[in-house]
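Quick one, tokens below. Sequence please?
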């Protein structure tokens, strides 16, 4: 039986990060079932025709060039007492240390009609191939359920290919877990203007049809009628891929494998990283949703560095995320107002609106920022950005302020740079102005 110093279950970004960081230093094997690892984030842009399919497929060399052994198989069971992994191909592998990086899979709700032809999710290479096949095969209508980042990106992609596209969410604004209504409503209107038919504040109760899906019915009886062979894609969240571990002694919470700040599970020599884990909010300490590569990769890097002798600790998840809606780049981090209220925070909001270049420059675009600050500690607990230019740098600056405990009064004194192409006039800075706005309210 083959034995490995580190056996990794899964071939996504978390697994690849570990291989890269431990390259040549440990005897590693990666077990994953797919022909290719994928850049999932880019899937909508293949549908939209911006990217070639093959560009989203990661090369096996990302793993094998690190010296790791790549095994194409699926783990069915783990004997944690004897440190053996059993696979679908009826192979057994022994390990000294096990790293579970089995990721997450898209949720399909248990509602009537969910097994009808045309009803899908979007996570795997097969999902993407199937959606493209159906689009190229002449599908004319699509319903996307879930107006989070994946749902929005998919709906826009389908709409751009000419399909009549409906987007449904139980909340009354899009991106409900990322953005507050005051920031997102103007953006949402653009999505509607682009032709996406929004059904907000609606809950899908059942899907209609005999063999093909021919409609979506909401719990108030309203319907979206569809011609046969239409698409209904659920983008309503992810659940951890841990079913194969359920019968074991491994501690698994509601949203994934329970790990400590070193990525250790309750079983010695067994670690877990990425979307398969349950993670907590660095702000509220509660279990946090939002499975993202920008959380999976840092968790994996931390574990790899610690395996090499460092002593890093995971801070928790800040939930920094971004997407693109119409011509707007949208991003957020930390808590929205709704989330802050639900958690009992007493907070103050500050906003600033400027331009991405000197406003006298012909290409300057609008950018708006919103910060939430806890009234007692005066620390930032959330931020949102809507911009005509990419927003991730601004989102990350806010996350950094939260992560490294920069009080809002210090942020108001932030030293910044300015140049006609790249920022507002030197006279002001977005974060500084939003901070001053909050301080004036705190001091009232
Ligand atoms: C359409 C889409 C867009 C996205 N956009 C973004 C974005 O813009 N930004 C961002 O940060 N994140 C984005 N994400 C999320 C991001 O892709 C995930 O957070 C990330 O892939 C998680 O990495 P992971 O390695 O933990 O798990 P995964 O990437 O899910 O990989 C898990 C691996 O484990 C394998 N596996 C599972 N069970 C077993 C088993 N029993 N045996 C062997 N192998 C197993 C799987 O087959 C897979 O290879 C997006 C996701 C999707 C679907």
């Amino acid at each position: 039986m083959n034995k490995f110093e580190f056996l990794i279950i899964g071939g996504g970004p978390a697994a690849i990060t570990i291989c890269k960081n431990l390259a040549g230093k440990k005897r590693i094997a990666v077990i994953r079932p797919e022909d290719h690892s994928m850049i999932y984030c880019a899937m909508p842009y293949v549908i939209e025709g911006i990217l070639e399919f093959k560009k989203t497929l990661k090369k096996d060399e990302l793993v094998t060039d690190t010296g790791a052994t790549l095994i194409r198989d699926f783990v069915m069971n783990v004997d944690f007492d004897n440190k053996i992994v059993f696979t679908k191909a009826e192979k057994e592998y022994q390990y000294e240390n096990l790293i579970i990086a089995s990721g997450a899979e898209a949720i399909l709700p248990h509602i009537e009609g969910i097994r009808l032809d045309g009803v899908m999710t979007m996570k795997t290479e097969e999902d993407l191939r199937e959606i493209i096949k159906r689009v190229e095969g002449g599908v004319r209508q699509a319903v996307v359920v879930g107006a989070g980042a994946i749902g929005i990106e998919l709906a826009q992609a389908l709409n751009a290919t000419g399909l009549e596209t409906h987007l449904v969410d139980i909340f009354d604004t899009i991106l409900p877990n990322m953005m507050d209504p005051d920031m997102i409503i103007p953006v949402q209107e653009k999505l509607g203007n682009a032709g996406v038919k929004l059904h907000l504040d609606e809950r899908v109760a059942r899907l209609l049809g005999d063999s093909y899906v021919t409609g979506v019915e909401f719990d108030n009886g309203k319907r979206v009628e569809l011609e046969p062979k239409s698409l209904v894609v659920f983008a309503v969240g992810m659940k951890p891929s841990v079913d194969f571990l359920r019968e074991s002694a491994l501690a698994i919470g509601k949203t994934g494998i329970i790990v400590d700040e070193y990525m250790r599970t309750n079983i010695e020599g067994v670690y877990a990283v990425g979307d398969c884990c349950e993670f907590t909010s660095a702000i509220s300490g509660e279990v946090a949703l939002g499975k993202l590569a920008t959380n999976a990769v840092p968790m994996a890097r931390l574990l790899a560095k610690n395996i090499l002798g460092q002593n890093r600790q995971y801070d928790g998840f800040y939930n920094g995320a971004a997407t693109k809606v119409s011509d707007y780049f949208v991003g957020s981090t930390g808590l929205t107002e709704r989330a802050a209220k639900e958690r009992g925070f007493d907070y103050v909001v500050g906003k600033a609106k400027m331009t991405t270049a000197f406003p006298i420059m012909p290409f300057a675009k609008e950018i708006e920022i919103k910060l939430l600050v806890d009234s007692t500690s005066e620390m930032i607990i959330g931020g949102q950005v809507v911009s005509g230019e990419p927003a991730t740098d601004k989102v990350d600056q806010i996350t950094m302020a939260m992560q490294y405990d920069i009080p809002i009064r210090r942020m108001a004194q932030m030293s910044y740079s300015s140049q006609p192409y790249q920022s507002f006039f030197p006279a002001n800075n977005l974060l500084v102005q939003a901070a001053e706005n909050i301080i004036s309210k705190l001091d009232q």
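Residues 87 and 413 are 57 Å apart (CA to CA). The two ends are 71 Å apart (CA to CA).
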